[in-house]
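Hi R.,

Here's the chain you asked about this morning:
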Amino acid sequence: MKRMLLPLLAVLLLSTACHRDEKVVTMDTSYRFLINFKGKFGYLDQSGSTVIPPQFEAAAIFSEGLAQVRLNGKDGYIDVNGKIVIPATFDRGMPFLNGRAAVKKGDRFAYISQSGKEVTGYDFISTFGFTEGLAAVIVPKGVETKAGYIDLNGKFAIPPQFDDASHFSEGLASVKVGRQHGFIDKSGKMIIPPQFFEAAMFRDGLAMVKINGKFGLVGYVDHTGKYIVPPQYSEGTNFNDGVACVRKTDKWLLIDRNGKQLFDREFNSPTVYSEGLAPMVVEKKIGYMDKSGVMVIKPQFDSGSLFVQGIAPVNVGEKLAFIDKKGTVVIEPRFVWDSRAIDQYTHYYTHFGPVAAAQKSN
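And here is the predicted structure, written out as tokens:
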């Protein structure tokens, strides 16, 4: 069966250094798409023009006007014109979120600003991206490690005390205490007590949770911890565009935010909606279905991902192409279909990019 691209649960991988006089950086955030040409990476614009020629050993998608690229075995950052604005000196670079990016040297992470200045020291064992002004970090604490949250200046807003932590979304973040997960607010107050085996970030007002261990049941809770969709499914996805996929027995269903099935049909694979359409496998080909169950773009592609700004990447004979919402190819297939780049694209736009931001504002 051809591969369906899914949103992933977000895990991206103490400072006293506070830059009070940080210069405000205004970034051009024009759309760019990562391409792979003979093992080198570059970028297209929305018209399909190659605006940054393939030249990098490795690269990531653009976030907040910057993208991390690899040159001579080190990571740095370029702007949308391909200019290196933060030199390649890091062992690893992560995407910019809220104007901050985690970077790694040796076995520790720090955060930098969009000007490339260090906002923290290299004090963290592991890091998450900033969301809603806070970032989860993991630090040594005696013989153990603990997770807490720092603010944009690198100071701890919530002291390290949790066994694990994740991103803030809709004002709440999942944290692990012992073997259970609950949710805290931005003051660190426990709003939903630890009781879940797993807990994902809030999307569309609901968070996917699992109870009763690894092989337990999945349901969805609201901001108070009340079950809106009771645990009854073996697997599930986060809500996106008002829809989640859930698995019961060996088939997947589509449900709305009230837990009601969208239409009376089962599927072999999960999917994700964006801009009202979702890629769907039919007889080993990908087409796009609306929320009423109508296949508005007939199955014809080998793979496909979500729509962003009216276009979606699709796989045509192992080449990357883009279609509009009528199914018309608007960027002809020229470059190799790179699953890693597509996974980055899908993950970013369902968690942090314009798709997610637009839904949070609704």
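One quick note: The first strand starts at residue 33 and ends at 37.

Cheers,
M.
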